[in-house]
Write a structure and sequence with these properties.
alpha/beta; six-stranded parallel β-sheet; 6 helices; 6 strands; globular
């Protein structure tokens, strides 16, 4: 599973939530954080060629190789952060993204505009949104320490439920 943070901030609560999910991943599920969202060039259809820029090729290769995507993003000005939206734009015409299972972690309550926008964009892009695997964590502080997040039963429970739901979709019984 490829985890993607919508925040470029070094001490991001969204990235910390994904790293906590990585630590809680059940047997058989590997969560890998994609570090290159900020390295992608601004989307330009003229650059979307059979041989795209190297950061775009790396992004698409990571997406194509993932059995599921796990997103966590903040809300900026009632929308998605620009770099995160840019990353999604590079996947619009990419066949390796079509029908890709996707789950969303909201690191804290609120951010409804960004979550709604992300869901709409993913629907238009023909992703397979795993609604039962999408969770909102009850974080009210900006703790960025993964160990502190893992020490909160409500966070562990939310992430655990998300990961178990994803596992169920990936390994249907």
């Amino acid at each position: 599973m490829l985890a993607v943070s919508g925040s470029l901030r070094a001490r991001s609560i969204n990235t910390a939530a994904l790293l906590a999910a990585q630590a809680l991943a059940p047997a058989g599920i590997e969560v890998t954080l994609f570090p290159g969202v900020g390295d992608l060039p601004h989307f330009n259809p003229d650059l979307d060629t059979p041989v795209p820029p190297a950061p775009v090729a790396a992004w698409r290769t990571a997406v194509a190789g993932a059995d599921c995507l796990l997103f966590s993003t903040p809300e900026y000005a009632h929308g998605l952060p620009g770099a995160f939206k840019n990353a999604l734009d590079w996947l619009v015409s990419f066949e390796g993204f079509v029908a890709k299972p996707v789950a969303i972690i909201a690191a804290r309550p609120g951010g409804d505009h960004a979550q709604a926008a992300l869901r709409e964009i993913l629907t238009v892009m023909n992703a397979r949104l795993l609604a039962g695997a999408c969770v909102t964590l009850p974080l009210t502080t900006n703790t960025h320490d993964v160990a502190a997040l893992l020490g909160q039963p409500a966070v562990r429970g939310g992430l655990g439920a998300c990961l178990q739901s994803i596992a169920g979709h990936l390994r249907p019984s």
